[in-house]
Amino acid sequence: MDARLDYFASPTAGRVFKHVMTAGKIIHDSPLPAATQELVALRVSQINGCAVCVDMHTKEAAAAGESAVRLHLVAAWREATVFTEAERAALEFAEQGTRVADAGAGVSDEVWERAARHYDTEQLTALTLLVSFMGLVNRLNVIARNPAGDYRPGQFAARA
């Protein structure tokens, strides 16, 4: 399978991606726990059907020491007992923030309050930015039909 577009060969995409990669690094360096970031990025990517990002975030999380059991259960986090209450709140937040067209209302007050019990304002800001950022990169990959499977952990670190 070949991608429809090669973003790295496009001067326009190159100029935009410089800022996108910088934004991603800023979110990555935020006070939102790294494990939570990977779980949220993985869940948003699963919902949006972005195989490239599912591949990337599964491998990045595993390389950072995340267990295979937790990674396999992200898609069914509600029924899984391996996530903390804070992680569950972040995953629920991520789902509602990703499924805006399905729910229409975005993140409910109840879900926001549950997340706010576990994360301070700066972490909630980072969580909101992460969910939005993942929506952007998921769409870029899905529209271009970028193939997945050969991502190596840290592959894009030098580009940021």
Automatic annotation (TrEMBL):
One of its GO terms (molecular function) is peroxiredoxin activity. Gene3D superfamilies: AhpD-like. Keywords: Oxidoreductase, Peroxidase. It comes from the Bacteria. The keyword Flavoprotein does not apply. Residues 23-95 form the Carboxymuconolactone decarboxylase-like domain. Pfam families: CMD. InterPro entries: AhpD-like, AhpD_core, CMD-like. NCBIfam families: ahpD_dom (TIGR00778). This is Alkylhydroperoxidase. The lineage of its organism: Bacteria, Bacillati, Actinomycetota, Actinomycetes, Kitasatosporales.
